[in-house]
Amino acid sequence: MILGRARLAGAAAVLLAAVAVAPAASPPGRATPAAAARTASATTADARFELASRTDPGRPMRWLACKPIEYRINPTDMPAGLEPTVRHAMSVLQRQTGVRFRYAGHTRHTFTSTTHAATPTVYIAFTSRRRAAGQTFGGPGGEIGVGGPAGSWAVSGGRTTEAITYGRVLLSSRFRGPATGGGASWQALILHEVGHALNLAHRGGARTIMHPVLSGATPAQYTPAEVHALRKVLQTSRCDYAAWSRL
C-alpha cells in the first residue's frame, strides 16, 4: 500500500514510496499471526513515525535490536559496484542509532517473498523493470524505490506477542546518481527506503531523509528528529527472541 506520494519537483527530484506488508504464515500448530494494519501519517515536523500496532494506536510495532539486525542483499539487477554503497549506508544508520546492523551476505529473497530468516532481517533487492511488485518505476509519477516493514502478532497461552518480523526494500537499478553523499544519491535513496523498512513514514521537509522527494537538498544522513524516531522503533532491552521466533 502506498502511504505517501509527492509530485515530481523538477529534474533533480525523484519520487520515493512506502508500503505496508503482510506477515508470513505460521508453521502448523502455532497461533496464527495477524497483519499489523494500522498506520498513521507523519506530516508534521516532529519525530512521528508510521504506527503499526494492533493494541495501541500510539505505540509503534518495534524491531528487536538487542542483537544485531541482519541485512541481506539480493544481487539480481544490482548495478555493478553498488554493494559497498549499501554497506556504507547501513554503517551510517548504525553509527547514528547505536544499533548494530550486520551484513549477512546475498539472498534470493525478493520484494514479494513472504518468508523470513530466523532473526530480524532487512532484505534489499533491485529491479531493472519499469513495473514491479505493483509499483511503477521511473518517469513522471514513478518511483525509484519502495520499502516497508512486515509486522505480525500471535496469541499463545493468553499472551500476545507482536513485533516486526522483517523489512523489505526494492530499488530501481535505472536510478542514476552518485554513490555516496547527500542529494539525489544512492546513499540517500537507500537510507530513505531502509527507514521505511524500519517503520518510518514520509515526513519532514526537503532537508530530511524521509521527505518523499529525493532532491539536491536531501542530506547524507538522518536528522536528529529521525534518529529519535528510529530509536523508538528499535527495541534494545528486554528483547524476547523466543517469543519472536513464533511469529
Strands, helices and their partners?
Elements: E1 14-18, E2 34-35, E3 63-64, E4 69-73, H1 83-97, E5 101-106, E6 121-127, E7 131-132, E8 135-136, E9 143-156, E10 159-172, H2 186-197, E11 213-214, H3 224-233, E12 234-235, H4 241-244
Parallel strand pairs: 1-9, 3-12, 4-5, 4-6, 6-10
Antiparallel strand pairs: 1-11, 2-9, 7-8, 9-10
Helix pairs in contact: 1-2
Core attributes:
247 residues, single chain, eight-stranded mixed beta sheet, globular, alpha/beta
Major sheet characteristics: 8 strands, mixed
Order of helices and strands: EEEEHEEEEEEHEHEH
Number of H/I helices: 4
What is the arithmetic mean of pLDDT? 79
The number of distinct β-strands equals 12
Uncertain stretches of 5 or more adjacent residues: 1-15, 20-54
Alpha-beta content class: alpha/beta
Which strand-content bin applies to the residues? 25-35%
**How much is the radius of gyration in Å?**
17 Å
Distance between the termini: 22 Å
Coarse morphology: globular
What proportion of the residues is helical, as a percent range? 10-25%
Task: Give a written overview of the molecule.
- With 247 residues, the chain is of the alpha/beta class.
- It is 17% helix and 26% strand.
- The protein is built from four helices and twelve strands; from the N terminus they run E-E-E-E-H-E-E-E-E-E-E-H-E-H-E-H.
- The chain has helices spanning 83-97, 186-197, 224-233, 241-244, and strands spanning 14-18, 34-35, 63-64, 69-73, 101-106, 121-127, 131-132, 135-136, 143-156, 159-172, 213-214, 234-235.
- The strands form three sheets. Strands 1, 2, 4, 5, 6, 9, 10 and 11 form an eight-stranded mixed beta sheet that branches. The chain has a two-stranded parallel sheet with strand order 3-12.
- The longest helix is centred in the middle third of the chain and has 15 residues, at 83-97.
- The two termini are 22 Å apart.
- The model is unreliable at 1-15 and 20-54 (pLDDT under 50).
